[in-house]
Amino acid sequence: MTEEDVKDLATNGQFDGRPIRGTIEETHISWVLLTRNRALKIKKPFKLPFLDFSTLRLRKKYCDRELKLNQRFSHIYLSVLPIVKSNQDWRIGGRGKPIDYAVVMKRMDQAMKMDNLLKSSKVSENRIKRLAVTIARFHARSRGVFKPFNLAVARETFNDIDMIKTVVKNNLGRRYINLISLTKEWSDSFLQEHQKRFQERVDAGFKRDIHGDLHSGNIFLYPKPVLFDCIEFNDEYRQIDVLYEIAFLCMELEFYKEKSISDYLLQKYLSRFPCLESSEDEKLLTYYKCLRANVRAKVHGLQLRQVRAPEKRRRQLADLKKYLDLMKRYIQ
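The structure assignment produced for this chain is given below.
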């Protein structure tokens, strides 16, 4: 589907026998149609270095995987339905040749999303404690993955920040290009020095099939927290050290200048799932925070290529700069 098709579907299409009349939220890889009580997620038909949604068959495959993987820890994922068009009428569900597919979810209150609560300084310690317990329980019951640590892959995961160098150069200038080079050198050195410990943690069972993208935009802080939108399109991104996952949230809280809450989250998480065993592991945690800031910088850099509205570009650029600055803090 094209962006115009999605707009037409949201405005004129039907779902469950009623007009959709939904609003559209967009990420760099999907569109989400929000109706009164459902969220309908449609994958963008393109290919990137880390995912391939370029064909209808692949989009169906990854819609099914998204449903199955997220149902491990979330009750909001309901089904995958075809999107069909007869004459000029769009419909989600029912008979007909599929034009595309949608993941159907319960719609949640956007005001309860963790990133929105952070922006309004409404993330309390009680909410963080419940979240830490929820994540620890999920991690404790997740399947172990014993694929050996791969130094070359780890280097490439960090160093592919080069994919946004043109965007950074054109918008932030030479100083930030130099910063990217500096962080890459630091990462290469760190990985070489600590590769034995990375492997020891794999052997100890700390590498698991978990969420993979657990940042504040993928959490609803209800009294019983709701995690959603795990990575379905790349197993390598999801099958990671549990410390790498919790580092993402710690980094996000520090991005929002909530260092004390970040420390509290880590403390409560570790009290339920002890996975930080030494001072060397503390260094790995800092590395993982830097890597997560690296990943978020890449996301915002990629989104800048797609965004045209001046205000949205300004926000994307501001966040990109903040994540690069955070990387600098971590390597220091």
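Interim note for the steering committee: Residues 3-107 form a domain with the Phosphorylase Kinase; domain 1 fold (CATH 3.30.200). The CA atoms of residues 136 and 190 lie 27 Å apart.
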